[in-house]
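## tool: complex_structure
## caller: assistant
## args:
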Amino acid sequence: MPIQYYIYLCLALFSIGIVGVLTRRNAIIVFMCIELMLNAVNLLLVAFSKVHNTMALAGDKTSMIGIEAQLFVFFIMVVAAAEVSVGLAIIVMMYRNVHSVDINFLNRLKN
Amino acid sequence: MSITQFLFYFLTVLALFSAVMVVVSKNPVHSVLWLIAVFFAISGHYILLNAQFLAIVNLIVYAGAIMVLFLFVIMLMNLNASTEPQKNNWLKLAGVIAGGCFLMVLVSLVKQANELNNIAVTMGTGEIGLIKNLGKALFNDFVVPFEISSVLFLSAMVGAVVIGKKA
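## result:
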């Protein structure tokens, strides 16, 4: 499988996430689209780690080159989990105050 | 067409279709369910790329924990298609055009990168995705970030409780 196919797939997923953030007004859906973008990046990191490792395996049969990318993906998942817990708490608080999850109500923050 | 190629195309189509359905679904609960389908497709891609540990973690953490949290919040607020706030159609069109332009620019950039031409992803080889090797790397070279992430989780937990507490 050429690496370009993976790049196109991840770019498409990332763009769908961007379109979702730009076109939806429900704060929870915007948040889900951000998760989608994070996952597109994760998939691309894993694909590049695989390519890098395959190249290194040609010289050294037990090479562990490329394992860092998979650990980066692991840490991205950790940060995403922390981000979701805080973000959903903020959305719940906003819902309690204005009884809506419309992100346009967040423009009150500027006062 | 070999079986891995077939699986690649199948998972790709599944991921893209589900991702589009996340964005266009009127009902937020349906969006969450489609997003779970995206995560399953991405986990399948991880398995094809021999990243077994990440595939399982993706299912457990994302499809299991995070999406249940989303579903809880949506059902707590009793959101459905009738309460869904809508942007007007011109703004939606502008958003789609902006996203499409972004995609077009980056795809044309990748198309012109000749360095990528002879690089292929070979599936079914390599052992860096196994939990043994990942664990060795995590607890030898990445101990400090690992410990810092525990502090991050603690602060996220405290933050969520403080924000969620009735003021």
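## assistant note: Chain A touches chain B through 72 residues (CB under 8 Å). Chain A is about 75% helix and 0% strand. Handing back to user.
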